Amino acid sequence: MHKSSSSANSLLADARKLRVNKQQLNKKKTENKLAEFMNASVTDSEVGIIPEGYGGITYLTFFIFLPEIAGILFMFFYISHGELDAYNTLDIDYLLTWVIGYEIVAAITLLLIFKKAMTFVFAK
């Protein structure tokens, strides 16, 4: 009986060692993939919607108009519940609409970056 308990203990110890080694290997792989993702360079042509050589003006246009459009859509659908009469009665300032839209666009952008990072790290 004493011999079987010591063999069971050695089997458990071996299983723990294997599990710890596997966890360390997975941790190193994840760290390497994350470091590779963080050091990857992204060019304008990889995005796909930006013409080559026109990145500056395109980004400026996106910076000005995308938040404004997002803010207007938010105000129309969320605040006035899609009713044009209710939307027309709102006293809307351009800067307020732009700031609301900027926060929406920023949140969506951060979520997309997080999603891309997770798919990059956990892709097998």
Summarize the topology:
Layout: H1 2-39, H2 44-47, H3 55-79, H4 84-89, H5 94-122
Total count of domains: 2
Content of β-strand: under 5%
Q: Helix and strand string, N-terminal first?
A: HHHHH
Give the averaged pLDDT, no decimals: 83
Helix % is: over 70%
User: How many strand units?
Assistant: 0
Uncertain residue ranges: none
Cα shape: elongated
Measured between the Cα atoms of the first and last residue, the distance is: 45 Å
Number of helices: 5
Largest sheet: none
C-alpha Rg, in Å? 26 Å
Would you tell me the structural class of the helices and strands? mainly alpha
Summarize the entry for a quick read.
The protein has five helices and no strands. It has 124 residues and is mainly alpha-helical.
What does this structure look like?
There is one protein chain. The protein folds into 2 domains: about 1-40; about 50-124, no CATH class. Helix content is about 80%, strand content about 0%. The protein contains 5 helices and no strands. It has helices at about 1-40, 45, 55-80, 85-90, 95-120. The mean pLDDT is about 85.
Question: What keyword list fits this structure?
Answer:
mainly alpha, 124 residues, 2 domains
